[in-house]
Each structure stands twice: as structure tokens, then as C-alpha cells.
């Protein structure tokens, strides 16, 4: 068991928000923390707090057995937040590697699990005797929060009079990266559990929703406000505490197996909310049946808010969701996404809120378990085929990310120190504040897949039994009836039951089943990466054997993708299941894959094809009647091959088998993941044949096939029909699906009662838009047919809305546009080709129609904006981004704003428009008043479509842009860790890990050029480690010791020693050592008597100094741009030292 470094336990915390102002965006309140000392030598307490203004801190001890109680006394305190400015010394080279190192050290210096924090409270000597007796200590902190940049978000729309419209104003908290400290002084640790009391005073026409059971609602004396009082009896940590305040409409749902259900949303959206949450009781009933326990909380509150930080956020007994999830009964597409999102949020109430994690390294457990049981609910609701397709998609996303970006390490504590972590990713994995959001999303997907693998090894029912035991052990402590603080001295007995760790899960599985699953964790949890399997075979007809070979081939190293682990990836070793479909049925074999390959001779159970067989048994138990074996060799009894058919590995599979086998697999296999893989395989040029075309066409026409397989087959048909000159018969088939005889005929009225047919009809025009002639131009019949579908669309008798269908048609038009022969800027409307003019007219009509009858979530407007941008990019209309700026302005729906911003980002990439880039940064990314989700999405768009790439310098690659992004990284985004990490990813994509090439070298820099055959430098920055656990030295927990020089210890560029076979891509500059952070940096009250510590001198890098003395300096002429670029092309290792900071030798 992991022992906390804190010399005290938190027994209970009370949060009181006395007032809230939507006009000034501020709250005022206080909080009380009840601590139980664990050592008589307790002399100081450290709390986490960011953004808040702390007015005073009061200390008092609780009465002893004789009733003696000391008078509360005001304590001195110190505050220091090193994350507010990561790199305090002026560094002209703007080194991202050094920033990441300092960022990790700064976050570690305030990590509560190391007994650190932003606030240091020394205990007065008068309290020492009481503390040494083990009496509980109450700490009261009075604070306020004004204009928060993150953590607490205000949605304060203005009315016609310019004042805040209180009818729609609301505020809510965020739950990312231990963000409770952003609005509340607390111990912001996932392992510090306690009971919670919350009192929130709001205007009388508003509602406050918080974790726990609502005890009472009382009005204030002036009857202008009312106070909501909640009590959460189940112990939980500070990251699981949040609230929402606003003029919400309350809708009480049916009881959820003993728990009360309350739903809140803005008043105009009540009817949509009723329909959206109607399936939530069924979801909870499934979880309770699956886990064998009831909802652990006495109430469940679901709040829909505008401008949400994330789609869903889970707190203890509270779920905050975006209003974008609300939909009516007429909307089909959003219903699926909303049910998935709410199902995951509800699963997180069991694992994530009730059962938490011991450390952040154990985050894969609650995230993986909640994702797994949510996926099982999808299987129950949407079917087994949809579930297998979902698992296949998640696995593909994980493998693609690990191949192109970074390998995902679920448990960094199992790595051999930070050096091994940095070899996987250039950022720190030990703190949530340093993990980029794209990595975190793949992390959750991989964690879910690992839990599913665990279920495959143990058995699904055994895994359910283990999960039931986890919750049963936690629920055996049930303080919900007593409403009293936890008794001192009992924490160690119940606390481990609420905290999950990898070792605790292994011990429980071993105790319940007798199976040791350590090998599974060693393979997928404590090691990064996935398997990339390539299978090939040959048939020995004389011996009736199949010579099968499976290799684990490493992927091609990513180029410009952000440091993917292509070259570092380990090979998979272990068992691999192979399924051989023969005429006599499916036969599964297990091969042992070592570090090189697995080669095995497998027997064919089918002796001869001469024996006529009327039925062929398939893997799912179905019997195939008299299958057509096509051009399969007459003496071959193997129909097709599948590798890891049950997806019991995290893998990417490539199978080499003849074309007829792919045809048979596509036609007759019942595993949808394998059928989808067959469709993708048949798109390869070597398989373009009429037989392939016929096999795909047969699947498209077969209504018994899973609709996603039919959609994938449509895409495959479009990919191969052009080279085969089969466009006309393909168009005829597509037209028949719509009930049309030709491209000019009117199609029947919409009928979406068959949902599978609806999804297919929505996808067919998108497939048709991919058809191109040999000249690369879409056939004119395609846009003509799609335009007719839009013009004569009739949805008057349809029970479902056609918004997404019309949006898909407009998206299809977007794909049919080919580049213009000549670019016209003057009088362009008169010079447009007739097909383009008709397209523009129709899209404009739908755009104007949106103003009168808006579609759901403005999906039609979003697609119309994409068409306008495509016409600009292809040269048909002038590239004027004024229309996109107007639609990106606040006041428009968020999806429309994001679509407009995406068009601006694409314009910046294509036109290299510096003014447009400055506008985007000014209005969105660098604008604190902008919505948090919009700022994050804008940075994500720039990452997907960067204005330029590293080593490809252009007119946008300027020192001004470097300075702007650096300010965001270093200081301006200190509160929003998600946005800071996103900007860091963008910075890495544009400039790499080291000094941007566009920035000049600092003045008075000594440059050392180390070439092969000269002096070698084996210099590594000191390993960044957080401050140690609490010691007698008061300075220990506040020093960022070992900051070292500017050479980061993470990424590909760790060492410079040629003997280690490690080279450098970029040039390095050693920045002057920054002063360490100590208690002298804290802001102390004027009358404080607590001593300040002396700053320790940084250690001198002796090895680098010796190299500087041994290697002659380069001439000044070598520092001009031409020679410097030549040196970079030769991949020379360049090091720099400032003359004023050279260490003594």
C-alpha cells in the first residue's frame, strides 16, 4: 500500500459560498478543513489554491475529552504558485524542452501527494501541545474569486439594456486536471477522501446544484437570496466536488432504485430534456444488474449547461452535461451520441467518483472500467455488431495515434524512472496538468480496451464478480445515516476500499480467482505500444498443411507527427489466435510469437473438396447453404484466414491472402470487424477487378448485411469503379437505392422509419461524390443528381427530421467540386460554370432558409460554410474570409462558430495570411473572455492544419509568433492546464523541442561545434524530480532543485554521446540556470514572523564546462544564417553558453 506523504488526514471539509455576482463574475466564501494529525511533530500545513484571493486563515483545535478548547487564532501564511510563470529567466531561444522540464518541476512542487501546495500555513507554537496530543485541527480559510480564467466558468449573456440577463445566466465548475484548487482552497488530491458539506447562497430565483443530498433550502433574512445546504456522506476527494448555479428549470424523474433523480436545464429546453433523459433509468438499471449493487448515492442530479467545458463531467452524485446533447424525438443522429455520453457519465458515478484512484498513475483503472461497462451498455442497446465495430474503431484510433504520435503508457509508475517516461512522450505523465488532451483521450480508449482484455482472460462473469466485490467492499462502510464527521483513527481501515490501484486489483483477482494477471499488466499497462501483426501463409497441398507466418513489424517512423515512437517501439511477444475457415468449419489455433516471428505448420481438417458439402459451418454457429467459392483454387479447402478474431490484443493486423479469399470473407463472414477489414483490403490496386466489384456490389444490395458494412462497401466500390470504367452501372445501383430511374427523376418522399436504410441513404451520396473520371473530375451526373435530391426533398410525411440528411447532401456537393481551370476575382458570378453556379445557388438558398427555419444544431449552416470555403480554395470565388469572421463571432451557435474558424484556419494554411492568423489569435486563442471550449478547439484546428511545419520555414514563421505562443505557454494560460498543453503541442509541431529557427541566437553566446572525431560531450540534464516528501527542512518542499540547464531529458534527443548511438535533430542552447524556487519567493504578510529561506545556488554543470574549455570557440562568421543552416543540415551538435554564466572549472 502506498503511504501518503502528508502527516495528517482530512476528515471533513465544509464549503460555504456566501455570495455570487454574475455581473463581476466573482464569488465570496470560506471553507473549513478538519484535519487529523498523524504525527506529534506536525508544524505546518500546505493547501492547494490558485486564482483565489485569500483574506485570512484561522486555526483552532477541537475540544479534548475534558471539553477544553483553544480560542481560534489567525495564522500567518505564505503563497507561491510556480506554475504562474514557468520560465522566469529571460530566455531568447524559447526552448520547449526546457519549458517541459520546468513545467514538470513546477507542478511537482505543489503536488499534494508529496505534501506540497501553493499555500504554506505554519502552526503557531500555542497549538503544538494540542496537536501533539492528536486533537483534530480546524482550518478556516476566507477567500474570494474574481474573474476566474479557468475552473469556474460564468455564462453571463447580456440583455437589450446591456446588463446581464439573469433569466439565462448560470455558472459551473470544470473537472479537468485537479482543477478544484482553481476555485476552492483544498487538498486537491485524488487520494484524500472525506465527507463534504456545501452551503451555497444564490439569488432567490436561481438554483444551486452540488454533490450530496439536499438537507434544506432556507431564505436569508432579506428574502432576496436563499441558501442550499448539501451533505455528502460518502467519502470522496476534492476533484470530485463541483457545482452549478443558475436559473434552471427542475424536472423530477422517477426514482432510480431508491435514489431520487433530478434534472436541470435552461427553461426553454425542458421538453428536449425530458426526452433526452428518458432512457437514463434503463441505463442505471443495467449497471445495477451488471455490478450487483445499487447506485452508491442517495440522489442523482443531471444539469445541462451552456458553454460547457466538456461534453459531460462527472462529480459525486452530480453530472454536468452540455445543452448540445439535448434533442427531440425527431432527431436520430444525436440520440445515439447523447445516449453514449450520458451512459459513460453514469458509469463514472460508480468508478471514478465512488471508487477513485490511489494515484494519477492508477487513473487507467476507473477510466477503463467505466468505459468498459458503458461499452457493454451500448452492446445491449445498439446490438452486438455495433459493439464490435465500436471496439474495432477504438483499437484503430489507439494504434494510429501510437504509430504517428506518441506511445501510450497507462501506468507510468511501472517505468524505471522519469527517463523511461520521457522516452515514451516528451511531456510528463505523472500529473494530469501536464498531459495534452489528445493524449488523454487515447489514454481513456486504451484503458477501456485493457479492461476488456482482462475480461477476455478472466471471463466476463468473473470480471463482473470482481467489480461487484470492489463496490461491495467500499459500500460496507456506509456513513450515510449518521451525518457525522468520520471518527479519528478509522481512516486507515476504510480508505483503501475507496481507492483503486494496480496492485490492489491484482491482489483481489488473485484472492477471488486464484489467477495471477501480472503478465497482462506487464504487457499492456506498464509498457507502452501495441502489436502490429503481419500474417502470410502458403499451402502445402501434398501434406495438406498450411505454413503460417506471423511477424510483428514495427511501423514506419512518423515524420512531423510529433515524435511518434516508431523507432522505439517494442515488439509484441505472446500468444496470437488464428482462425482458419475451412469447408468443414472454423478451426482456431494459438501461436506463440517470440521477438522475431511465429512460424507454424497447421493441419487442414478438410481432406478434399471433391466431397460435396451442402452446408458450411461459420464461426458464429450459422450454417452456410451451398456457398459460391468463385475462383478459389479447386484443390484448396481453406476459405479465408483471420488473425485475433475476438480482438483479444491491442493490435493492427495486416493479412496477406489471395483475392478470392477476401471475396468469400466479405460475403459470408459474420464478424463485422472482419468484413470492414475486407472492404478496406479490397481497395488496394492489386485487387481491382470485376470479381471484386461484383462481391462489393452483392454486399451493398444485400439488406441482411450490417448497415456499416454496406456503407464501407459503397466507399470501396467508388474507389475501384473509376479505374475499371464501371461508373454507369454503379450509378444505376445507387439510383435504385433512392427509387430513382435516372439522375433527373424525382425521388419519393423521405421515410426514415428503417434506421439502417436511413444511414445508408445518407452515406450513398457521400460515396458518389468520390467518383472521378480518369481526368480527376467528378462526372456531371453526380452533382446533378445530388442537387435534385436537395431541390425536391420532401419530408412532410416523415416522423423524423431530415436535418442531418440535408447536411449530408450538402457535404456531398462539397466533395464534388474540382479545381477551377482559371482563378477569377472580378465579376466571378457571371463567369462561373453552370454546374458550379447551380451548386452555389442551391447552397445559398439553404443558407438563407436556415435563418427562417434553423436546423438542429445548425448542421446545414455548418456544411454550407464548408462548401463556401471549398469554392474559395478551388478558385471559383474570391478568397474573402469576411463571411467566416462574421459567423465566428460570439452570439452564433458554437458549431457554426467552430466551422467558420476551421475555414479561417484552412485559409491561413493555404494563403499564408498573417493578418488572418493574427485575427484568430486575438479574437479566440489569446482572448480570456472567449469560451474555454472554443479556445481549445481553435488550438486543436491549428494543430490539425498547421500554418507551417517544422523545417519548412515560411512568411508566417516569425519571431513575433514565437513570442506570442511563448507568452501563452509561460504565463497567460497558467490556470487552464488543458489549453496550456494544447498550445505546447502546437508549439512542438511548429518548432520542435528546441530553439525556433526564426529566433536569433542570444548575444554573447559561445557556440561549440562537436563533430565526429572531436571531443564528445556526454551531458544530460538532471532528472526532473518533484520535491521530496515532508522533512524537517522547511525549504525542501518549495525548491525546484536540479533544474539544471536547458537540455531536456525527454524526447528523442536525450544524449550527445555517439557511443550511445543517439543523434540530435536540432541545435541545443544551454540557457543560464534559473534560480530555484524556495520559501523566499512566497508572498508573506507584513507582520509575519515565519523565517524566509536562503536560495540555494544552482549546481555547476562541470562536464559541459570542461568541454567548453577544451573545444575552441567558433568564429563570429559561423553564426550567420547560411552557415547555421548548413550546420543544421549536416546534423551537427551545437551547444551554447552565455559568456556571463559560464561556470568555474
TrEMBL record:
GO terms for molecular function: chromatin binding; RNA polymerase II general transcription initiation factor activity; transcription cis-regulatory region binding. It comes from the Eukaryota. GO terms for biological process: transcription initiation at RNA polymerase II promoter. InterPro entries: Aminopeptidase_N-like_N_sf, ARM-type_fold, Ig-like_TAF2, Peptidase_M4/M1_CTD_sf, TAF2, TPR_TAF2_C. Residues 661-1016 form the Transcription initiation factor TFIID subunit 2 TPR repeats domain. GO terms for cellular component: transcription factor TFIID complex. This is Transcription initiation factor TFIID subunit 2.
Amino acid at each position: 500500500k502506498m503511504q501518503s506523504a502528508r502527516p495528517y488526514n482530512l476528515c471533513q471539509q465544509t464549503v460555504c459560498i456566501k455570495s455570487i455576482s454574475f455581473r463581476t463574475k466573482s464569488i465570496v466564501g470560506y471553507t473549513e478543513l478538519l484535519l487529523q494529525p498523524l504525527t506529534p511533530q506536525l508544524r505546518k500545513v500546505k493547501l492547494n489554491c490558485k486564482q483565489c484571493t485569500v483574506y485570512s486563515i484561522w486555526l483552532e483545535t477541537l475540544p479534548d475529552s475534558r471539553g477544553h478548547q483553544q480560542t481560534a487564532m489567525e495564522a500567518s501564511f505564505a503563497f507561491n504558485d510556480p506554475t504562474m510563470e514557468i520560465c522566469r529567466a529571460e530566455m531568447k531561444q524559447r526552448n520547449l524542452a526546457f519549458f517541459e522540464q520546468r513545467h514538470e518541476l513546477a507542478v511537482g512542487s505543489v503536488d499534494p501527494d508529496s505534501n506540497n501546495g501553493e499555500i504554506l500555513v505554519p502552526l503557531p507554537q500555542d497549538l503544538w501541545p494540542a496537536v501533539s496530543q492528536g486533537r483534530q485541527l480546524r482550518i478556516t480559510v476566507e477567500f474570494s474569486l474574481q474573474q476566474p480564467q479557468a475552473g469556474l466558468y460564468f455564462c453571463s449573456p447580456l440583455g437589450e439594456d446591456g446588463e446581464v440577463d439573469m433569466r439565462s445566466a448560470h455558472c459551473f465548475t470544470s473537472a479537468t486536471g485537479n482543477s478544484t484548487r482553481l476555485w476552492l482552497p483544498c487538498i486537491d488530491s485524488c487520494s484524500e477522501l472525506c465527507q463534504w458539506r456545501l452551503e451555497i447562497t444564490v439569488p432567490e430565483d436561481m438554483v444551486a446544484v452540488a454533490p450530496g443530498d439536499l438537507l434544506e433550502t432556507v431564505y436569508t433574512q432579506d428574502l432576496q437570496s436563499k441558501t442550499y445546504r448539501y451533505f455528502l456522506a460518502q467519502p470522496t476527494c476534492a476533484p470530485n466536488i463541483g457545482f452549478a448555479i443558475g436559473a434552471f428549470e427542475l424536472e423530477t424523474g422517477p426514482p432510480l432504485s431508491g435514489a431520487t433523480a433530478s434534472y436541470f436545464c435552461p427553461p426553454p429546453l425542458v421538453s428536449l430534456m425530458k426526452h433526452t433523459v428518458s432512457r437514463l433509468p434503463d441505463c442505471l438499471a443495467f449497471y445495477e444488474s451488471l455490478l450487483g449493487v445499487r447506485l452508491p448515492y442517495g440522489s442523482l442530479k443531471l444539469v445541462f449547461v451552456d458553454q460547457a467545458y466538456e461534453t459531460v463531467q462527472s462529480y459525486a452524485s452530480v453530472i454536468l452535461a452540455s445543452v448540445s446533447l439535448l434533442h427531440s424525438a425527431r432527431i436520430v443522429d444525436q440520440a445515439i451520441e447523447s445516449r453514449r455520453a450520458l451512459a459513460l457519465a453514469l458509469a463514472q458515478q460508480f468508478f471514478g467518483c465512488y471508487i477513485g484512484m490511489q494515484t494519477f498513475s492508477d487513473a487507467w483503472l476507473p477510466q477503463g472500467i467505466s468505459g468498459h461497462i458503458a461499452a457493454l451498455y451500448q452492446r445491449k442497446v445498439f446490438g452486438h455488431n455495433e459493439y464490435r465495430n465500436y471496439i474495432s474503431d477504438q483499437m484503430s484510433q489507439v494504434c494510429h495515434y501510437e504509430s504517428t504520435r506518441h506511445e501510450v503508457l497507462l501506468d507510468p509508475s511501472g517505468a524505471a524512472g522519469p527517463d523511461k517516461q520521457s522516452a515514451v512522450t516528451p511531456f510528463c505523465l505523472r500529473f494530469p496538468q501536464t498531459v495534452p488532451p489528445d493524449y488523454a483521450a487515447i489514454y481513456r480508449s486504451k484503458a477501456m480496451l485493457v479492461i476488456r482484455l482482462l475480461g477476455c482472460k478472466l471471463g466476463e462473469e468473473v470480471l463482473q464478480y470482481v467489480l461487484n466485490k470492489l463496490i461491495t467492499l467500499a459500500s460496507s462502510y456506509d456513513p450515510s445515516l449518521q451525518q457525522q464527521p468520520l471518527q479519528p483513527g478509522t481512516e486507515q481501515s476504510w480508505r483503501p476500499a475507496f481507492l483503486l490501484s494496480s496492485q490492489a486489483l491484482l491482489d483481489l483477482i488473485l484472492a477471488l480467482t486464484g489467477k495471477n494477471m501480472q503478465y497482462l499488466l506487464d504487457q499492456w499497462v506498464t509498457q507502452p505500444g501495441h502489436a502490429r501483426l503481419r500474417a502470410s501463409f502458403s499451402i502445402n497441398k501434398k501434406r495438406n498443411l498450411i505454413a503460417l507466418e506471423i511477424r510483428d513489424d514495427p511501423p514506419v517512423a512518423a515524420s512531423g507527427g510529433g515524435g511518434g515512437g516508431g523507432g522505439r517501439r517494442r515488439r509484441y511477444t505472446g500468444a496470437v489466435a488464428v482462425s482458419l475457415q475451412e469447408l468443414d468449419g472454423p478451426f482456431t489455433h494459438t501461436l506463440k510469437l517470440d521477438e522475431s516471428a511465429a512460424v507454424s505448420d497447421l493441419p487442414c481438417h478438410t481432406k478434399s473438396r471433391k466431397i460435396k458439402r451442402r452446408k458450411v459451418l461459420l464461426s458464429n454457429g450459422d450454417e452456410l447453404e451451398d456457398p459460391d467459392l468463385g475462383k478459389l483454387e479447386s484443390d484448396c479447402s481453406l476459405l479465408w484466414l483471420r488473425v485475433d478474431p475476438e480482438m483479444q490484443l491491442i493490435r493492427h493486423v495486416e493479412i496477406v491472402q489471395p483475392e478470392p479469399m477476401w471475396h468469400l470473407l466479405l460475403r459470408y463472414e459474420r464478424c463485422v470487424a472482419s468484413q470492414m477489414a475486407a472492404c478496406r483490403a479490397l481497395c488496394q490496386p492489386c485487387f481491382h477487378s470485376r470479381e471484386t466489384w461484383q462481391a462489393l456490389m452483392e454486399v451493398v444490395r444485400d439488406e441482411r448485411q450490417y448497415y456499416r458494412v454496406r456503407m464501407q462497401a459503397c466507399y470501396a466500390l467508388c474507389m475501384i469503379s473509376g479505374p475499371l470504367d464501371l461508373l454507369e452501372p454503379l450509378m444505376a445501383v445507387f439510383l435504385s437505392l433512392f427509387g430513382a430511374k435516372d439522375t433527373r427523376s424525382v425521388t419519393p418522399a423521405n421515410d426514415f422509419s428503417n434506421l439502417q436504410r436511413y444511414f445508408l441513404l445518407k452515406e450513398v451520396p457521400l460515396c458518389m461524390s468520390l467518383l472521378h473520371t480518369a481526368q480527376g473530375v467528378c462526372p456531371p451526373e453526380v452533382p446533378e443528381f445530388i442537387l435534385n435530391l436537395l431541390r425536391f426533398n420532401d419530408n412532410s410525411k416523415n416522423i423524423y427530421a431530415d436535418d442531418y440528411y440535408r447536411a449530408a447532401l450538402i457535404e456531398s456537393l462539397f466533395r464534388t467540386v474540382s479545381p477551377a481551370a482559371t482563378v477569377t476575382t472580378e465579376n466571378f458570378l457571371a463567369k462561373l460554370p453552370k454546374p458550379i453556379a447551380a451548386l452555389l445557388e442551391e447552397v445559398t438558398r439553404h443558407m438563407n432558409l436556415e435563418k427562417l427555419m434553423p436546423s438542429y444544431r445548425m448542421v446545414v449552416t455548418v456544411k454550407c460554410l464548408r462548401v463556401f470555403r471549398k469554392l474559395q480554395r478551388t478558385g471559383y470565388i474570391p478568397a474573402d474570409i469576411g463571411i467566416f469572421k462574421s459567423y465566428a463571432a460570439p452570439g452564433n451557435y458554437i458549431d457554426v462558430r467552430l466551422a467558420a474558424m476551421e475555414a479561417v484556419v484552412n485559409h491561413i494554411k493555404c494563403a499564408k495570411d498573417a493578418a488572418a492568423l493574427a485575427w484568430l489569435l486575438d479574437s479566440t486563442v489569446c482572448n480570456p473572455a472567449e469560451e474555454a471550449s472554443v479556445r481549445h478547439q481553435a488550438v486543436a484546428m491549428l494543430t490539425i492544419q498547421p500554418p507551417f511545419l517544422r523545417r519548412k520555414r515560411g512568411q508566417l514563421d516569425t519571431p513575433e509568433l514565437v513570442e506570442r505562443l511563448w507568452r501563452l505557454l509561460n504565463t497567460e494560460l497558467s490556470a487552464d492546464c488543458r489549453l496550456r498543453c494544447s498550445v505546447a503541442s502546437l508549439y512542438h509541431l511548429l518548432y520542435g523541442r528546441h530553439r525556433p529557427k526564426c529566433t536569433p541566437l542570444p548575444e554573447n553566446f559561445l557556440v561549440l561545434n562537436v563533430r565526429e572525431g572531436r571531443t564528445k560531450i556526454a551531458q544530460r540534464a538532471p532528472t526532473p524530480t518533484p520535491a521530496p516528501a515532508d522533512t524537517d527542512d522547511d525549504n525542501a518542499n518549495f525548491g525546484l532543485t536540479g533544474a539544471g540547464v536547458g537540455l531536456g531529458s525527454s524526447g528523442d534527443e536525450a544524449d550527445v554521446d555517439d557511443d550511445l548511438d543517439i543523434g540530435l535533430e536540432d541545435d541545443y542552447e544551454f540557457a543560464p540556470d534559473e534560480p530555484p524556487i524556495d520559501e523566499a519567493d512566497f508572498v508573506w504578510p507584513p507582520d509575519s514572523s515565519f523565517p524566509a529561506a536562503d536560495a540555494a545556488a544552482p549546481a555547476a554543470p562541470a562536464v559541459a564546462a570542461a568541454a567548453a574549455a577544451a573545444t575552441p570557440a567558433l568564429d563570429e562568421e559561423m553564426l550567420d544564417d547560411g552557415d547555421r543552416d548548413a550546420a543544421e543540415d549536416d546534423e551537427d551538435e551545437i551547444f551554447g553558453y552565455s559568456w556571463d554564466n559560464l561556470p568555474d572549472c
